[in-house]
Amino acid sequence: MDSRPISIAAPKKLHIAMFPWLAFGHIMPFLQLAKLIAQKGHHVFFISTPRNIHRLPNLPPNLLPFITFVKLPLPGGDGNLPENAEATSDITLDKMPYLKKAYDGLQHPLSLFLESSSSSLDWIIYDFASFWLPPMAAKFGVRRVFFNILTGWTMCLFGSTTDAMVNGEDPRTQPEHFTVTPKWEFRICTVSARSFRAVMFWR
User: Fold this and answer.
1) Given its phi and psi angles, is residue 78 left (phi above 0), alpha (psi -120 to 50 degrees) or beta?
2) Domain boundaries, the chain
3) Left (φ > 0), alpha (ψ -120 to 50) or beta: where does 5 sit?
4) E-strand spans in 27-175?
5) In tens digits, what is the pLDDT along the chain, a chain of 203 residues?
6) Does the annotation mark 90 as catalytic?
7) How far, CA to CA in Å, does 179 sit from each of 159, 160, 161, 200, 203?
8) In the chain, N or C: fewer CB atoms in 10 Å?
9) Which of 15, 26, 42, 43 does the annotation list as catalytic?
């Protein structure tokens, strides 16, 4: 009988990038997930803008070697954003389109990061607003994961069939259309928005 010890290879440690939307209601859940991943010994590159990263709580000392913050300066939003505005908490609702446009302006610096890191990067976890990220990451051979921080009822209200979301066939074209249960809802789950909420969503 062979009494030599059996060698078991240690699980591979992953390198994972995370890229949340510019709202602390998204950034903080992403950071919480980053901590959970780091606790497993994987390395996380947490990507956001300089001011948002500066406003994050300090990491526990034991996680410092496993989380690297990557700061991408936010484009100015064509001069329509207040100075130092880098998150939804820094702006009024009417400025939201300009923040989204500035966020889209991060495509180029993020592409440079992925290109320089693609040889070692295993995954990137992204948010709803970076619809342009999956094909970019695929170009560099980086696998993608969509992390949705929204509640189930929100997905029931806004999520529809693939045709409706991707091909623009959603018949809802006015705020009042969101005040009734969507046609894809199950009978046991009826979700709709109040009028003032629907107007906020629409804006």
Assistant:
1) left
2) 15-146, 152-202
3) beta
4) 43-48, 67-71, 123-126, 143-146
5) 556 555 555 678 999 999 999 999 999 999 999 999 999 999 999 999 999 999 999 999 999 999 999 999 999 767 789 999 999 999 998 899 999 999 999 999 999 999 998 788 999 999 989 999 999 999 999 999 999 887 665 666 665 545 454 455 556 666 666 666 666 555 545 665 556 555 555 55
6) no
7) 15, 15, 19, 12, 15
8) N
9) 26
Of 2, 104, 127, 177, the active-site residue reads 127
Is 127 known to be catalytic? Answer: yes
Residues 57, 39: Cα–Cα separation, whole Å: 17
**44 within 8 A of 28, measured Cβ to Cβ:** no
| 85-90: Cβ within 8 A, 24+ apart | 86/22, 86/49, 86/50, 86/51, 86/52, 87/22, 87/23, 87/24, 87/27, 87/49, 87/51, 87/52, 88/22, 88/23, 88/24, 88/25, 89/23, 89/24
Q: Within 10 A of 143 (CB to CB), how many other CB atoms are there?
A: 13
Residue count of the chain, please give it: 203
CATH number attached to the domain at 15-146: 3.40.50.2000
The encoded tokens of residue 147 equal 């992390």
The contacts of residue 33 (CB under 8 Å, 6+ apart) are 18, 125, 147
